[in-house]
């Protein structure tokens, strides 16, 4: 089958590849060291410093590139965690049904009733902040949302005749979850994956902006906004660079997610085929 | 340009209809679905359009409203209604045509009515929106029509909401809605297909009477030749968007000229000779009762049945008679409340989880809707191969060879291995489901309405296949159906179910011979026969009213 990628998805894909290469190859690409002071405070853009310098004279481009690395790594890891856990819990709950489903769903509801940010702030004020803690915390909090979506999708699939046929054959829970339900639940979940990833980017940026996320000497986009926000009063645009980066990444991921959703639903045997 | 006034109500010349298909991965493509059809209908006459799904009958019917469903356009030809070419009409003129001169009765009345408005408001709606008469007159017309259509309490019937009346009544209310503006032409699109067989003939009879009384012209669309033979004056047989044969009803039924028409007429003639039962029963139900959680009555009451090796037991009944529940009890999906189910002489555990793999293997099931009975993300090889792997531990080349063997048995070839269910036709899907059941080498297969969703000729093929496979594999069938023609074709033993009870049970020859109990008589007499005047005979002689009234 020849595949034609629509222009919008192509743009999104290009941008995503750009950001992810920045993240992966940060030490190779970055012109200076991450904590290296190379100039005056808030120098304007120049051939030497493409984006100027930051509040203590470090190269902003270098900071942005290393920031991309931290932001994208934390957001990806947390998304993978929330997706795997949320989907498996939801599918398991649906297939097992009864009190398992009931108990799990009510527990998830309980967690969801606490505002995510407040929950995170409380936990981070008690537990020492590290990248691993951030990933686990964000992943677990987002698991609740993935669970809700995956459960809704799985409930529909669980009553299909082919699932009943598998049950009549005597298949175990594992086969029914992984082979009968999961492949048919994937396309709505994949579209959600992009969206959740972006929320993770925003979440980690928020935490860092509040000073509870990534700690120096590491940095991420939220922390860069925090460091440079005072400059906005004097007309220094340094804080806008990470804001633009977050927005661009968000849009490009969504463009790709839209395309993936369209494509998977029109596949042979897709849900809307 | 012809402007001569003809005496024909409808005259269609060289009608061509096209549509755009969107195949995944390919560019959208224009195809022609109706290839130049001519058609005439005189005032006050009824024309039957018959054909299988995809023949273009609904599309032609809707074209008399100058309308096409999503993506369908009329690409050529002329359609004259009362001598006016409606394809040249402006939007304003079309609005005047639709719902006033030409009206439409759809297959699913339940989906056609707005559930939040009273029936009367919906029945008089087109009269009022076309300003044909005052609301009072329109309501009087509606009540007259309700009475004519045999609806209960015609004066107050219109005050009800759609969910408060039965399916058969709703279909009649829709007929009243179509007749209310006193149109010249009514399109009936499979109006009785979704109804139970005993309800179908009441609705059919009242539609026929209403057509005769009002003198309206009608196009009656259906896939069931026996039904159309009862109501129409002329019949047109369609296949793949082309006319196959046209003639008076008498001529089509009694003297068909074309092979395709002959096949349609003789569709219900497959009859399997009853074989005497021998050996110990494969499956035995003893005083089985079952109910769903939350209900305070049994859906299946005290049922005792036996199925013998290489035999077919047909369980017949209308929707709600408990026949599918009975299948759920046997498979263990719904644990029984009392009684025993024994299989090969040993008692089966009531719940599915307690049954052994061997017990599960020997009892397989085939579903009504083949497209949802197969995982859309699995290839045919995986679908048929899984039971082989699961029950017999077959792998690799051995498994594949057996899958190919099974594909041959169901008359599909090796080329189907890598295909997905969505790439198969309805009949092919059902065949794959049969192969999946056979792969387990079962002793009994429960067939739940396996032919009801298929076109008659395709269904016939499936029945023949099942009978052949029975001879090869020595498997028994429990055949659940509402269609007595299917029962005649395939059964050795028959159980008639009514409101959860088995009201009649025995070998086919006995069950289908008089004297009948009232319900069996009603059921048997309701099966449309390929005979003119059958409807009138039945209505005048039956002993019991159908449940849908």
Q: Give the overall silhouette of chain B.
A: globular
What is the average per-residue confidence, as pLDDT of chain A, rounded to a whole number? Answer: 85
Query: Strand share of the residues of chain B?
Result: 15-25%
Estimated share of beta-strand residues of chain A:
under 5%
Query: What is the C-alpha radius of gyration of chain A, as a whole number of Å?
Result: 22 Å
Query: Would you list the SSEs of chain A in sequence order as H and E?
Result: HHHHHHHHHH
E-strand count of chain B: 20
Count of runs of 4 or more consecutive helical residues of chain A: 10
How far do the termini of chain B sit from each other?
Answer: 51 Å
- Helix residue percentage of chain B: 25-40%
In whole angstroms, how far apart are the ends of chain A? Answer: 16 Å
Which term fits the overall shape of chain A? elongated
Structure explained in plain terms:
The complex is a heterodimer of chains A (273) and B (549). Chain A has 273 residues and is mainly α. Chain A contains 10 helices and no strands. Chain A is elongated and about 75 Å long. Residues 266-273 of chain A have low confidence and may be disordered. Chain B has 549 residues and is an alpha/beta fold. Chain B is 37% helix and 24% strand. Chain B has a 6-stranded mixed beta sheet, sandwiched between helices. Chain B has a 6-stranded mixed beta sheet with strand order 16-17-18-13-19-20, with helices on both faces. A 4-stranded antiparallel beta sheet of chain B has the order 2-1-4-5, with helices on one face. The longest helix of chain B is centred in the middle third of the chain and has 18 residues, at 197-214. The chains are: A mainly alpha (273), B alpha/beta (549). The interface between A and B is medium-sized, with 24 and 30 residues.
């Amino acid at each position: 089958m020849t595949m034609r990628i629509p222009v919008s998805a192509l743009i999104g894909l290009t941008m995503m590849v750009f950001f992810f290469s920045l993240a992966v190859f940060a030490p190779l690409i970055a012109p200076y060291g991450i904590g290296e002071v190379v100039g005056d405070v808030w120098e304007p853009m120049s051939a030497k410093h493409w984006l100027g310098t930051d509040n203590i004279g470090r190269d902003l481009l270098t900071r942005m590139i290393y920031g991309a690395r931290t932001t994208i790594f934390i957001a990806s890891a947390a998304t993978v965690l929330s997706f795997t856990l949320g989907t498996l819990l939801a599918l398991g709950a649906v297939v097992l049904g009864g009190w398992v489903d009931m108990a799990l769903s009510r527990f998830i509801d309980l967690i969801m009733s606490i505002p995510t940010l407040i929950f995170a702030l409380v936990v981070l004020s008690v537990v020492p902040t590290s990248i691993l803690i951030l990933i686990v915390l964000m992943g677990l909090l987002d698991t609740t949302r993935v669970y809700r979506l995956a459960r809704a999708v799985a409930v529909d699939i669980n009553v299909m005749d082919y699932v009943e046929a598998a049950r009549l054959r005597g298949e175990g829970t594992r086969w029914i979850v992984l082979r009968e339900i999961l492949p048919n639940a994937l396309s709505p979940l994949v579209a959600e994956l992009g969206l959740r990833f972006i929320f993770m980017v925003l979440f980690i940026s928020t935490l860092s902006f509040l000073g509870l996320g990534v700690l120096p000497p590491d940095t991420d986009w939220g922390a860069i906004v925090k460091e440079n926000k005072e400059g906005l009063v004097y007309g220094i645009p340094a804080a806008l660079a990470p804001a633009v980066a977050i927005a661009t990444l968000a849009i490009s991921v969504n463009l790709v997610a839209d395309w993936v959703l369209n494509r998977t639903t029109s596949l042979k045997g897709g849900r809307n085929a | 340009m012809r402007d001569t006034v003809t005496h024909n109500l409808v005259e269609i010349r060289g009608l061509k209809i096209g549509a755009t298909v969107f195949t995944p991965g390919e560019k959208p493509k224009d195809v022609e679905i109706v290839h130049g059809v001519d058609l005439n209908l005189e005032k006050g006459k009824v024309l039957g359009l018959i054909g299988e799904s995809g023949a273009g009958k609904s599309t032609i019917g809707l074209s008399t409203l100058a309308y096409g469903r999503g993506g369908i356009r009329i690409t050529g030809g002329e359609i004259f209604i009362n001598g006016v070419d409606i394809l040249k009409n402006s939007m304003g003129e079309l609005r005047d045509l639709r719902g006033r001169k030409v009206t439409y009765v759809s297959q699913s009345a339940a989906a056609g009515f707005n559930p939040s408005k009273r029936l009367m408001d919906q029945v008089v709606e087109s009269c009022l929106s076309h300003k044909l008469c005052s609301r009072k007159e329109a309501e009087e017309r509606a009540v007259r029509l309700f009475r004519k259509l045999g609806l209960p309490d015609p004066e107050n019937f219109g005050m009800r909401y759609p969910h408060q009346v039965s399916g058969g009544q709703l279909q009649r209310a829709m007929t009243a809605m179509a007749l209310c503006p006193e149109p010249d032409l009514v399109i009936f699109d499979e109006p009785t297909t979704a109804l139970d067989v005993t309800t179908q003939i009441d609705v059919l009879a009242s539609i026929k009477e209403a057509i005769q009384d009002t003198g309206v012209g009608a196009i009656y669309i259906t896939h069931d030749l026996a039904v159309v033979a009862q109501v129409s004056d002329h019949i047109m047989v369609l296949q793949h968007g082309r006319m196959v044969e046209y003639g008076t009803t008498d001529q089509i039924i009694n003297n068909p000229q074309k092979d395709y028409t002959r096949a349609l007429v003789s569709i219900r003639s497959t009859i399997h000779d009853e074989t005497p039962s021998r050996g110990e029963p494969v499956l035995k139900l003893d005083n089985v009762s079952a109910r769903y959680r939350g209900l305070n009555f049994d859906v299946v009451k005290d049922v005792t049945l036996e199925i013998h090796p290489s035999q077919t037991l047909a369980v017949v009944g209308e929707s709600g008679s408990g026949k599918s529940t009975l299948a759920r009890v046997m498979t263990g999906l719904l644990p029984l409340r009392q009684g025993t189910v024994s299989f090969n002489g040993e008692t089966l555990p009531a719940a599915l989880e307690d049954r052994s793999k061997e017990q599960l293997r020997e009892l397989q099931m085939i579903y009504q809707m083949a497209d949802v009975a197969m995982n859309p993300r699995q290839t045919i090889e995986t679908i048929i191969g899984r039971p082989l792997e699961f029950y017999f531990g077959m792998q690799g080349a051995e498994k594949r060879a057996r899958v190919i063997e099974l594909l041959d048995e169901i008359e599909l070839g090796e080329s189907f291995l890598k295909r997905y269910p969505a790439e198969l036709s309805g009949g092919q899907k059902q065949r794959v489901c049969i192969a999946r059941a056979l792969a387990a080498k079962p002793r009994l297969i429960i067939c739940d309405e396996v032919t009801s969703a298929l076109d008659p000729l395709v269904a016939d093929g499936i029945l023949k296949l099942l009978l052949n496979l029975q001879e090869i594999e020595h498997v028994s069938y429990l055949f659940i159906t509402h269609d007595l023609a299917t029962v005649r074709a395939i059964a050795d033993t028959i159980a008639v179910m009514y409101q959860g009870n088995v009201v009649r049970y025995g070998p086919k020859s006995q069950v289908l011979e008089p004297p009948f109990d009232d319900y069996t008589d009603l059921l048997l007499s309701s099966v449309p026969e390929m005979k003119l005047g059958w409807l009138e005979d039945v209505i005048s002689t039956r002993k019991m009213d159908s449940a849908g009234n």
